[in-house]
Structures are given as C-alpha cells and as structure tokens.
C-alpha cells in the first residue's frame, strides 16, 4: 500500500463517491478509480460496493478505513512537525551552563531566544564544566559551556567569552583598595569555594598547585548568593567572575597578579550535526558575544 492510494481511499469513503472525491482532491475521477482498483488487487479484497454513482464500504473496507485514518493522520502530523522544525516553530534545545554564567551572563540570551522562538522548548541544565562535558558525550544535553584552556579533541568548541577571575573581598578588607592581590596573599586567607568539578574550583586548584600551597577552605558550596553573603560578613574570601559582584557594594573585586583569564566556549560533539533549533541557539550566543555582550 502506498500513501497516495490510502489518501484516495479515505477521501472516497468520507465523501461517498468517486466523483465527489475527485472534486475534493482536484484530480481526474479515472485516476482515483484506477488507484482504488489497484489497491483492491494488491490486497485481494473488495473495499467498496459500487452501486451507480454511490459507493459504500464493504466489511473489509471498514477495517482498512480505521487503519487508513491513523496512517494518514500520522504522516500529516510528521510533516507538520518537520515544517515546524524547519521554520523554528517547534523543536528542543538542551544546553548545560555553569551556575555562575547561568545566573549572570546567560539570562538576557535565554530570554531573547525564548522571545524570538516561543515554540522551541528550552531546557537549561546547571552543572560544572567537567560534568557538562560528560553529559554532552552521553547525549543528555545537546551542547554546553566549557572552559577551553585544554579542549577535548572530540568536542567542537566555539569561544564566546573571555573573562577574568578575580579575588572577591568584603568592602572593609585590608586589601580591598589594592590594585591587585598576589597568590600568596590570597591563599593566606580562609576561602569560600565551589565544590570540585566547577571551573571556579579548578582555577583555585591549579593556582594552588603551582604555588605549592594547600588552600584553607572554610566553606564549600555551589550557591552563589550564599558565597557572597559569607564573604560580605567577613568569614572568608573567594574568587568569581567580576560580573557576579558588579552591582554589590558590600563586595570588592581585586585582580590577581598575575591575572587569571578564562576562555569560555560553547561545545558539542565533534561531527554531530546540530538540529536547526540548536544551531539557531548557538548562533545567537555567538552573535551576542560578537556584539560585545560580555
């Protein structure tokens, strides 16, 4: 059975005649009659009782009618879904973002994407960059934000942000007005840090290893508002992206000496063709970066 024959059969059954079906489908009546005849020959079953211009379904035709409706509707639904994906009226984007960027960099981008393409379902997963790499590999997410100091060979990466990690101190700290802070001075303090697996923590671990010191960690948490409150009340210092404290008068951002810069990229599996919805999201992220949204 082919789809066209089923459509002809369904139309004849619903209109009650070959002539009426031909008019509705805007094709010649003999073409419909021939198609139905071939379908009956293929099935070796009569589908219609023909009585002059009027026809009615046989018992066998009634059985096929149920299936034909289901099949034709399923194909119609599939075609519609494909059109929606092509025109970005539907689809899904699953993106992983570390909490710091998810809270302070991506909200305008996510809202802009949602505004432009309201029919696309947007799923945002929060996790550390190492976990996000694993989720990309396993197919749990379509793309994710990673630090590309040493990008994996099996991921395609596109840099969208260069950001400086800075020491975050309470406004009344002795070093709050300093032009920079040395690694030795930073590690002399009690620290408030993210848990392992986040780029925030990896920066500290890498610096401490180079400096040959063991960080004094007073608090471990991935909750940024809690980290800021702990630092503001003088129970430790931390390091974050400067954007996190830009509007917080209780906290001061002091650059490291030497400075610590990170390259952040949007990544997905190498050789994996992004869906139209995902490619559009990636293009928007890179477009915003090109417009100076940093």
Automatic annotation (TrEMBL):
Gene3D superfamilies the UniProt entry points to: 3.40.190.290, Winged helix-like DNA-binding domain superfamily/Winged helix DNA-binding domain (1.10.10.10)
Keyword Transcription regulation: yes
UniProt KW keywords: DNA-binding, Transcription, Transcription regulation
TM stretches of this protein: none
Molecular function via GO: DNA binding; DNA-binding transcription factor activity
Keyword Cell cycle listed: no
Residue ranges of every copy of the HTH lysR-type domain listed in the record: 1-58
GO cellular component terms attached to this protein's record: cytosol
Pfam family, one: HTH_1
Cited InterPro entries: HTH-type_LysR_regulators, LysR_HTH_N, LysR_subst-bd, WH-like_DNA-bd_sf, WH_DNA-bd_sf
Assigned protein family: Belongs to the LysR transcriptional regulatory family.
PANTHER family hit by this protein: HTH-TYPE TRANSCRIPTIONAL REGULATOR YBHD, LYSR FAMILY TRANSCRIPTIONAL REGULATOR
Name of the protein in question: Transcriptional regulator
């Amino acid at each position: 059975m082919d789809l066209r024959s089923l459509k002809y059969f369904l139309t004849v059954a619903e209109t009650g005649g070959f002539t009426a079906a031909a008019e509705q489908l805007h094709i010649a009546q003999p073409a419909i009659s021939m198609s139905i005849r071939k379908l009956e020959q293929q099935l070796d079953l009569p589908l219609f009782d023909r009585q002059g211009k009027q026809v009615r379904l046989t018992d066998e035709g009634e059985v096929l009618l149920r299936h034909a409706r289901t099949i034709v509707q399923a194909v119609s639904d599939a075609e519609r879904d494909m059109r929606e994906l092509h025109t970005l009226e539907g689809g899904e984007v699953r993106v992983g973002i570390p909490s710091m960027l998810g809270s302070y960099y991506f909200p305008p981008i996510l809202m802009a994407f949602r505004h432009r393409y309201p029919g696309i379902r947007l799923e945002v997963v929060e996790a550390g960059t190492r976990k996000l790499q694993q989720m990309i590999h396993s197919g749990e997410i379509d793309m994710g934000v990673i630090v590309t100091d040493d990008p994996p060979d099996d991921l395609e990466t596109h840099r969208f942000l260069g950001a400086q990690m800075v020491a975050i101190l309470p406004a009344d700290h002795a070093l709050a007005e300093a032009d920079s802070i040395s690694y030795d001075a930073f590690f002399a303090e009690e620290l408030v840090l993210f848990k392992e697996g986040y780029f925030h923590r990896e920066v500290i671990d890498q610096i401490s290893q180079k400096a040959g010191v063991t960080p004094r960690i007073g608090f471990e948490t991935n909750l940024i508002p809690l980290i800021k409150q702990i630092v503001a009340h003088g129970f430790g210092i931390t390091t974050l992206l400067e954007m996190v404290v830009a509007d917080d008068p209780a906290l001061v951002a002091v650059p490291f000496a030497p400075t610590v810069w990170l390259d952040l990229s949007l990544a997905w599996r190498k050789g994996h063709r992004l869906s139209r919805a995902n490619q559009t999201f990636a293009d928007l992220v890179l477009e915003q970066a090109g417009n100076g949204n940093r």
